[in-house]
Fold this sequence. Notes:
Elements: E1 2-13, H1 17-25, H2 30-37, E2 40-51, E3 55-59, H3 66-73, E4 81-86, E5 89-90, H4 96-106, E6 107-110, H5 122-126, H6 128-132, H7 137-150, H8 166-179, E7 184-188, H9 196-213, E8 216-221, H10 224-230, E9 233-238, E10 241-246, H11 248-253, H12 258-264, H13 275-278, E11 284-286, H14 292-302, E12 306-310, E13 316-321, H15 322-330, E14 346-347, H16 353-360, E15 367-371, E16 374-379, H17 381-388
Parallel strand pairs: 3-8, 3-9, 6-7, 7-8, 11-12, 14-15
Antiparallel strand pairs: 1-2, 1-4, 4-5, 9-10, 12-13, 15-16
Amino acid sequence: MKKIVVEDLTKVFGKNPKLGIKLLKEGKSKAEILEKTGMTVGVNRVSFDVNAGEVFVIMGLSGSGKSTLIRLVNRLIEPSDGSILVDGEDLSKMDKKKLIETRRKKLSMVFQNFGLFPHRTIIQNTGYGLEVQGYEKSEIEEKSKRALEMVGLKGYEDQYPNQLSGGMQQRVGLARALANDPDVLLMDEAFSALDPLIRKDMQDELLELQQSMKKTILFITHDLDEALKIGDRIALMKDGVIVQIGTPEEIMTNPSNDYVEKFVEDVDRSKVFTAAHVMIKPETIQIEKHGPRVALQRMKKAGISSVYVTRNNNELYGIVTAEQAAQAVDNGIKDLEDIIERDVPTVPPDISLNDLFKVIYDTPIPVAVTEGKILKGIIVRGAVLAALSGNEVNLDE
């Protein structure tokens, strides 16, 4: 379900935006329009959509138009052209009263500089938006306390901003945005002012909160690592234009042009790729109907030294090696239960290759990728090394 749909959204700063739009439609570049008219193209006919519950990241270098774009979405900056649909309603056509109502009920924004009132306590800062909307004092307090607890600040309600660290102040900003339970969170470089370790903690906390909140989040950043970590999809901007939209994996493995390729070339792939991207289909036998002879025959045919054992619903049961199967055949053993190894190293599909290293290098057998107890694939060291070396990863495997 599409929560936000943006179509041909454009912002031209200057005395005659209509002329700027006309020149854009004629194919003139941002630089040409600046030289010819003195006007600046902030956002150039941008179109994208955001699914309900999705973390959609807009990223780019300074001057790319990303912060202008997010302010156009909630009309803190008035668009020159285009439409912004939220739940099918076009914000660009709303009168002031309807726009304010929509902002209050559906949109909340978290800024880079926290924006806290120094003379207000933490709970008063958190409830400020609710106060402006005219909620009763008791309801403001209840909603504010709940929001502060969500971001891990229970017990700090009566402190003041200058008594909190930068990371804690940003948590207050997030709590304030969450207090009125908005459908959409707009986050403009929300973690950029934080120290690296605190920033990482806030990224982790946002992802953890999102597991339960399921908000639609539009997140602005200039940091590719941050975008790859938290984004379900990423839109990469340059000179007011979106040059590529895709999942983190699509951006990394299939850059649309030289600019994107240059942008992603220094990314630590071990933090981006996951087990799901490098796993291969395993050779398996079923505990209910197969024995050592079948296990040995399968291994010989496939040219492998071990085979995974599953139940008939593909639930991982264990592993049998060629040596174990051969000895069982020689000794007349017909039951896999007598030779099966149950202690199989397993990882979830979404574990990063960075976290996978310590698992694959501590085990002599391939690592099983499981979801719940269901066997999804196996990891061999060569596939991991190929992914890290920059070779194409087949996402369909």
